[in-house]
């Protein structure tokens, strides 16, 4: 398959394009500088005219839209800018008849609703900030654009728009301020971690599972739709601290999770993986202890760089 990728140099992107290359897919990345081992078109999402001829010549069968410029800037201005980038990109891809567009969403599209009400693929998203609202808008536009274009196509020529709502992904190469990476670095520096909300709980999913899900959606998904990618359960911050402390033998980090005050009042979303499991056969394989061990091994042996 010929696949055009935005955001291929980011955290998820680096892992995804490496695996796609191993699977012998032909890739074209959007990048402002050369990417070793990959073909690329020079530019960014702000100037589609700079690189659209190169993508059109490549004739992609599929596109993966991972890029979201300006992070960790979640402001109104940056969110609005990325909405426009996404709308322009999807319109361009529709114009060159790219058959599959896979874009990634945010866990926070579910807003502050209780986890048990967050049902994948039913448009029950309720964004609670400008970033998650922007993601939701991009999803709506991509879905509507494909549905409108498909009205004039035969069944074999119909396109697919896939929205992959990734929960709290962790793994080698993520930002050093992310929880697991931060805790491991605290251990390396022999300092005690400062955690504001040890009672917080999130649906953590390891990067290898995320990459596998994205590739299976590209290769096997037969229709447009929304899919959650997560473990399907919440894991507390203090539980993760305790796992890392046990593995690294740091006794003074331990706390009894049953004795914590519940100071973190914002409900966290949790993935409903029933749809992606039923339709393409994906489910998470790496539990939190295995994922943390992989990260510990990585940071100790690779010094925090993705090969």
Walkthrough of the structure:
The chain has 307 residues and is α/β, with parallel strands linked by helices. The protein folds into 2 domains: 191 residues, NAD(P)-binding Rossmann-like Domain (Rossmann fold, 3-Layer(aba) Sandwich); 85 residues, UDP-galactose 4-epimerase, domain 1. The chain is 39% helix and 16% strand. The chain is built from 9 helices and 11 strands. It has a 7-stranded parallel beta sheet with strand order 3-2-1-4-5-6-10, with helices on both faces. Strands 7-9 form a two-stranded parallel ribbon. Helix 3 runs parallel beside helix 4. The longest helix has 21 residues. The two termini are 23 Å apart. About 4% of the residues have low confidence.
Blueprint of the fold:
Blueprint: E1 2-6, H1 11-22, E2 26-31, E3 39-42, H2 52-58, E4 62-65, H3 76-95, E5 100-106, H4 130-150, E6 160-166, E7 168-170, H5 179-189, E8 201-202, E9 204-206, H6 207-220, E10 225-229, E11 235-236, H7 237-248, H8 274-280, H9 288-302
Parallel strand pairs: 1-2, 1-4, 2-3, 4-5, 5-6, 6-10, 7-9
Antiparallel strand pairs: 8-11
Helix pairs in contact: 1-6, 3-4, 5-7, 7-9
């Amino acid at each position: 398959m010929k696949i055009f990728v935005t955001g291929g140099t980011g955290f998820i992107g680096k892992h995804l394009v490496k695996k796609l290359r191993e699977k012998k897919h032909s890739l074209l990345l959007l990048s402002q500088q050369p990417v070793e081992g990959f073909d690329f078109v020079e530019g960014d999402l702000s100037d589609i005219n700079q690189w659209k001829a190169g993508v059109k010549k490549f004739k992609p069968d599929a596109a993966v839209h991972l890029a979201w410029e300006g992070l960790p800037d979640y402001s109104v201005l940056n969110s609005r800018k990325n909405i426009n980038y996404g709308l322009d990109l999807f319109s361009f891809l529709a114009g060159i008849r790219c058959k599959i567009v896979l874009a990634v969403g945010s866990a926070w599209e579910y807003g502050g609703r209780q986890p048990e009400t967050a049902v994948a693929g039913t448009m029950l998203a309720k964004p609670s900030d400008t970033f998650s609202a922007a993601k939701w808008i991009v999803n709506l536009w991509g879905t509507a654009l494909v549905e409108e274009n498909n009205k004039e196509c035969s069944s074999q020529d119909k396109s697919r728009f896939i929205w992959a709502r990734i929960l709290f992904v962790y793994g080698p190469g993520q930002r050093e301020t992310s929880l697991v990476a931060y805790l491991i670095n605290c251990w390396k520096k022999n300092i005690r971690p400062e955690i504001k909300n040890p009672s917080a709980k999130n649906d953590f999913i390891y990067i290898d599972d995320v990459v596998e899900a994205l590739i299976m959606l590209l290769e096997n998904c037969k229709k447009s739709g929304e899919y959650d990618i997560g473990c399907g359960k919440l894991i507390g911050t203090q539980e993760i601290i305790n796992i890392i402390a046990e593995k690294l033998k740091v006794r003074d980090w331990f706390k009894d999770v049953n004795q914590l005050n519940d100071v973190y009042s914002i409900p966290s979303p949790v993935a409903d993986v029933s749809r992606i499991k039923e339709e393409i056969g994906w489910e998470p394989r790496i539990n939190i202890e295995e994922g943390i061990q992989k990260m510990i091994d990585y940071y100790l042996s690779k010094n925090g760089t993705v090969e």
